[in-house]
Amino acid sequence: MTDLTTNTTATAAEGDAQFGDYVQLLKPRVMSLVVFTALVGLLVAPVSVDPMIAFTAILFIALGGGASGALNMWYDADIDAVMRRTAKRPVPSGRVTSGEALSLGLWLSAISVAMLGLATNWLAAGLLAFTIFFYAVIYTMWLKRATPQNIVIGGAAGAFPPVIGWAAATGSVSIEAILMFGLIFIWTPPHFWALALFMKSDYHEAKVPMLTVTHGRRETRRQILIYTLVLAPVALGLAFTSVAGPVYLAAAIVLNAIFLKGAWDIWRRDEATAEADAYLVEKRVFRFSLYYLFLHFGALLADAGLRSWGIV
Question: Which residue, of 43, 166, 281, 293, has the greatest Cβ tally within 10 A?
C-alpha cells in the first residue's frame, strides 16, 4: 500500500459514511454476476436442492463475493484515487476508512465461508474461501500490479461462482461445472481489454500494467480477437453437456457470432481512425460482452426449466 491510501482515507470524518457506502464496498454490480452464475450452477445441477438451502447457499456465496470486493477496495485505494472511473469509491473519497473496509472484508469472508460449509458442504465452502483468497491476494495484491497477464490469470476468481453453486448442490465438481468455469474464465480477458482500450489513460496514470499500457492498443486488439476465437468453441462445447439444450445451443451460436464480429471489428480498425469513432466500436463490444455472459447462463436456466417441465 502506498502513502496515498493513508493520506486519502485519513481525511474521513467519523460518521461521514452512509449505508450505501458500505454496500458500494461490496461491488454490487460485480456481485450480481456472482449471484446469477452461482444460482445457475446450483439450479442446473442434476440433483434436487431444498429451496431454503439453495437460498442460504446463494446468500453466503454473495457475501463471499462482497467480501472480495471490500478487500479489493481496501488494498487498491491508492490506485482507485488516481483513476477517474474509481476515484469516487468510498475509500479513496474518504467516506469509509481503510480500516473499516478491511474489517468488513475479513468478517464477511469468515462468516460466508463458515456458514456456506454448515449449510451445504465443505467442498463448496473451500472453493469459496479459495476464490476470496485468489481475488484479494493473488489478483489484487500481486498480479494486478505485476503483470499484463493480470486479467488473464485473475479471471479465475470471477469464474468460480458457478462451480461453487454446483458443488453446493452436488458435493462434487464435474465437466459441466468446469466448462461453466471455462466460459467465464476465457470471456474475462476480451471483456476487460475492450474496457481498457477506451480507459487506457486511467491505467497508465495509475501505473497498472494493463495490456494496453505495456504492449499497446494494436496488441490488445489482437489478443481480444484471439481470446474470442478460443471462447467460441468452449461456449459451444457446453451445449453438448447434460446441462444444456436447444435454447442454449441457439443462444451460443448467435451470441458467439456477434462477439466474434465485434472482436474482428476491433482488430481490423485502422489506427488512424478518429479516436471518437474507435471508442464507439470498443464501447459497443464491451457493452455486448456484459449481455453475452448473462444470456449464456440465462439460456442454461431456460433449458433447465424446460427439462423440469418434461419439454426437452
Answer: 166
Centre a 10 Å sphere on the Cβ of residue 218 and count the other Cβ atoms it contains.
Answer: 12
Dmax over CA atoms of the chain, in Å, equals: 61
Domain count, the chain: 2
Sorted by sequence, the CB contacts under 8 Å of residue 258 that are 6+ apart come out as 288, 292
Q: Give the number of other CB atoms < 10 A from CB of residue 270.
A: 8
Q: Which domain covers residue 278, as residue numbers?
A: 175-304
Closest CA to 101 of 59, 134, 73: 73
* C-alpha separations of 253 from 94, 165, 238, 243, 284 in Å: 46, 25, 12, 16, 19
Note whether 23 and 73 are within 8 A (CB): no
Q: Same domain for 246 and 213? A: yes
The Cα–Cα gap between 203 and 261 comes to 27
Q: Write out pLDDT tens, residues 32-65.
A: 999 999 999 999 999 999 999 999 999 999 999 9
Question: 90 with 101: CB under 8 angstroms?
Answer: yes
Q: Distance (Å, rounded) from C-alpha 145 to C-alpha 75?
A: 11
User: Is the C-alpha dihedral spanning 124, 307, 294, 39 positive or negative?
Assistant: negative
d(Cα 228, Cα 236) in Å, to the nearest integer? Answer: 12
Q: Is residue 174 within 8 Å of 166, Cβ to Cβ?
A: yes
For 169-188, what is each residue's pLDDT tens digit? Answer: 999 999 999 999 999 999 99
191 and 167 part of one domain: no
Domain boundary (173, 198, 221) is at: 173
Residue 309 maps to a domain: no
Neighbours of 262 (CB within 10 A): 24
Query: Which of 173, 191, 219 marks a domain boundary?
Result: 173
